[in-house]
From TrEMBL, chain A:
InterPro entries the UniProt entry points to: BP-dep_ABC_trans_perm, MetI-like, MetI-like_sf
PROSITE patterns: ABC_TM1
Native species: Salipiger thiooxidans
Protein name (record): Sorbitol ABC transporter membrane protein/mannitol ABC transporter membrane protein
GO CC annotation, single: plasma membrane
Transmembrane segment boundaries: 12-33, 72-96, 108-131, 143-163, 184-209, 240-261
Membrane topology: Multi-pass membrane protein
Automatic annotation (TrEMBL), chain B:
Family: Belongs to the binding-protein-dependent transport system permease family.
Keywords: Cell membrane, Membrane, Transmembrane, Transmembrane helix, Transport
Domain of life: Bacteria
Subcellular localization(s) per the UniProt record: Cell membrane
Protein name: Sorbitol ABC transporter membrane protein/mannitol ABC transporter membrane protein
Biological processes, Gene Ontology terms: transmembrane transport
Residues annotated as domain ABC transmembrane type-1: 69-280
GO CC annotations, alphabetized: plasma membrane
Membrane-protein topology: Multi-pass membrane protein
Transmembrane intervals: 12-37, 73-94, 106-123, 155-178, 208-228, 264-284
Organism, scientific name: Salipiger thiooxidans
Length: 276, 290
């Protein structure tokens, strides 16, 4: 008896959850469908859209007319580049703070976090002028620098929360056995830290890929990543729904897949360890 | 225990990160402060001069500033209200056992990974466009007049779009918090005859309050800086109907080339963000001790 009730309850929850899930996911599903339609069909009523022919036309057009791949490459270079450089700077810092904490370690961490609270628009003018004078406007180098710096606090924090969970005794044992600092890092710490570093990397690539304040303000054409490329569809000419859908699908697909793998780390990274 | 040697090494390892962040913070901040006291327009180079508080006076008495401030509060408040309430309900739903949990979770989280320019343009064109959008088709089907969301209710439409992006974040965090709730405590309460409502109110809400605070604070930081969604949908219009503080300062500094005025606005934005930041830092700091 109790079991039947549970099953009925489970069925009701299942229906409700799926309905809500599909409703939330629907816009993404819809652009996926539109991206395989011709421009003429993409603006028709939903029934006509679903029954019309499927085509890869829009994907071709997006690549040929607007050099989609270059923007894609810019996005990859910016997000991966800034993440790798960020990690090179952050790993030693987080390691030191987790394993050799001093009196002021906590203050340093909190201060780093506070730089993240600075609203970007508050420093937009000086950064823009500095970039203009150094010739960094619309350059990949300039954007990699900015993206590295805005995400550095998150990288350090995430790594710190991971490193803190590694038992210090193991490091002490290695030290007692005569391991040098270099060997300690290379052979003891690194293997244990790799999962944490990997998830930090994943989350940071996602954040950098979707960053849409600096990438929109500091690029024009040459270094424009996908965020800026898609923004160019805000003042289109003629029919463009299928093309916008195709470009959008390609812009979000890689990050959507990565995101699904990093759900758990996302919570931790974005709340600076406050919710695990 | 840490030796003298390892302390020195630790300091060396931290310093690049500290120096970089210090430079990133101090240099532009000092420049913004300095510019905010200058009459400085990029269209009139070489005409810079010290003007004291003039930029602030102009910025703070500009009717556009009050519109933008109001819009910023509505945008942040509206999105918070929708995402926190919606996120709590959704987390409670997804926390129940049901078939296909993994798939539904993936679908619910997905919007968070969509870049802001894509989600704004997709909602603007494929859904809210009165002629070709899905809502327009639907209105037509029902025999109603199509509604032009972005020109007739621009701010509400943007609040809706941004809520769609942030609902997954709130849900995910609240769900994580719910799952760390002690199940035995709930069962014990149930056996003692506590109703579902009082279990929710006396056990779940106190347990979730911390996560909700975190959601509110972190979202506020990001929501104060909403920019791309406004740029590609309404460009702040009509008039200033959907201009927030970030967008206003962007217009002033990069479209009107008024560096002095834009910088004064930037300082005001920094002060406002700091008020929120202080609360957030306290929360996270407490957690660090625990």
């Amino acid at each position: 008896m109790a079991r039947a009730v549970t099953n009925r309850r489970k069925a009701i929850v299942t229906v409700a959850a799926w309905l809500v899930g599909i409703a939330i996911f629907f816009p993404i599903l819809w652009i996926l469908i539109l991206s395989f339609k011709s421009e003429g069909d993409a603006i028709k009523t939903p029934i006509e859209v679903l029954t019309s022919n499927w085509t890869l036309e829009s994907y071709h057009t997006v690549q040929e007319r607007s050099d989609y791949f270059r923007h894609f490459l810019n996005s990859v270079i910016l997000s991966v580049g800034s993440t790798v450089i960020g990690l090179i700077i952050a790993v030693p810092a987080a390691w030191a703070m987790a394993f050799v904490p001093g009196k002021r370690t906590k203050d340093v961490l909190m201060w780093m976090l506070s730089t993240k609270m600075l609203p970007p628009v508050g420093v937009l003018v000086p950064i823009y002028l500095i970039f203009r004078d150094l010739g960094l406007l619309d350059s990949r180098v300039g954007l990699v620098i900015v993206l590295t710096l805005i995400n550095l606090p998150i990288i350090i924090w995430m790594l710190y929360t991971y490193f803190r969970e590694i038992p210090g005794e193991i490091l002490e044992a290695a030290r007692m056995d005569g391991a040098s600092l270099k060997n300690e890092i290379l052979y003891v710490l690194t293997p244990m830290a790799v999962p944490g570093i990997a998830s930090t990397m994943l989350l940071n690539i996602i954040l950098a890929w979707n960053e849409a304040f600096w990438t929109l303000n500091l690029t024009a054409a040459k270094a424009a990543p996908l965020t800026a490329f898609i923004a160019s569809y805000s003042s289109p000419e003629g029919l463009f729904y299928a093309k916008l859908s195709a470009a959008s699908t390609m812009a979000i697909a890689p990050i959507l897949i990565m995101g699904w793998f990093s759900q758990k780390q996302l919570v931790r990274g974005l709340t600076f360890g406050a919710v695990k | 225990m840490a030796t003298q040697h390892s302390r020195a090494a630790a300091r060396l390892m931290i310093s690049p990160a500290v120096l970089l962040l210090l430079g990133w913070m101090i240099v532009p901040l000092v420049m913004t402060l300095y510019f905010s006291f200058l009459r400085y327009n990029l269209l009139m180079p070489g005409m810079e001069e010290f003007t004291g508080w003039t930029n602030y006076r102009f910025f703070l008495t500009d009717p556009a500033f009050f519109d933008a401030l109001g819009n910023t509060l509505l945008l942040v408040g509206g999105v918070l209200l929708i995402t926190v309430i919606g996120g709590t309900l959704l987390a409670l739903l997804l926390d129940q056992p049901f078939w296909g949990q993994g798939v539904v979770r993936i679908m619910v989280i997905a919007p968070f990974f969509v870049m802001p320019t894509v989600s704004a343009l997709v909602w603007k064109n494929m859904f809210m466009n009165p002629v070709n959008g899905l809502f327009g088709h639907f209105a037509h089907f029902l025999g109603l007049e199509p509604y032009d969301f972005l020109s007739q209710a621009p701010l509400a439409s943007i609040i809706f779009i941004v809520s769609w992006q942030w609902l997954p974040f709130a849900t995910l965090i609240l769900l994580t918090a719910l799952q760390s709730l002690d199940q035995e405590q709930l069962e014990a309460a149930e056996m003692d005859g506590a109703s579902a409502l009082s279990r929710f109110y006396y056990i779940m809400v106190p347990h979730l309050s911390r996560a909700i605070t975190v959601v509110i604070l972190i979202q506020t930081i990001f929501l104060l800086s909403i920019f791309a969604e406004i740029l590609v949908t309404t460009a702040g219009g009509p008039g200033t109907a959907s201009t927030n503080l970030t967008y206003l300062i962007y217009v002033q500094s990069l479209l009107q080339f008024d560096v002095g005025g834009g910088s004064a606005g930037g300082v005001v934005a920094i002060i406002l963000a700091n008020i929120v930041a202080i609360f957030l830092m306290r929360m996270i700091g407490k957690n660090l001790d625990a």
